[in-house]
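Question (not urgent): is this output format expected?
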Amino acid sequence: MLPISLEFFPPKTAEGSDKLRAARAELYALKPEFCSVTYGAGGSTHAGTFTAVGEILAEGVSAASHFSCIGATRARVREQLAELKAMGVRRLVALRGDLPSGYGMGGEFQYASDLVEFIRAETGDTFRINVACYPEMHPQARSPEADLQAFVSKMKAGADSAITQYFYNPDAYFRFVEEARKRGVDAPIIPGIMPILNSSQLLRFSDACGAEVPRWIRLRLQGFGDDTAAIRAFGLDVVADLCERLARGGASCLHFYTMNQAGPTLAIAQRLGPVPAQF
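Got this back:
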């Protein structure tokens, strides 16, 4: 199995926090290089994100805070960067992000590349910066070429590596990496891996975020109806095969979207074999 990193979202309840701590404790057996924590629209989960990041650091694991800029001022971003640095955070996932519904654009940043450039100018090499990319094109992009150029701009602004939106077609990833390399991006492009747990939820979320679920997978999932066990068994086969193909094709590591659960990621990891030393 390739080296891995893990992603969590900040819980909204005390019970959710307890469950996440338990999930992390199990997942640390996989020796993740780092664990990232997502950031709500307009920074709406700021407190929860930073709390979870702090807990991960206290557990002896490197933590990356998601960090979005849409609607933010430079002064506010500067303040939050200082807070993260004081906590001991040395990794960020820099994103444009979304505003909460009902808010105007506002803020002093327009693109994620603006945020990356600002972080580098303000903090030098304090943070290792990851950015997002979309092998199957960002849903708001004008065209595949425009999306690629936006990605290249983020990397040239100072990002160290990129994490992709999840996908189930490995050829989309390999094609995206090839096109990025042609445009001068030589940094790691880490595939994002989403376990398949629930048919309707996956299809609904994928349609909303622009991730393609290949027709053969959709049809198989729909054929299982409400048979959760069958869906998970099929999903395990699909995602484990995807990971193996990515490894054979040259991916250097994998980033798992855990959905704050240990079981699905652990099952995939068990199928793939021992985890090597940290990368």
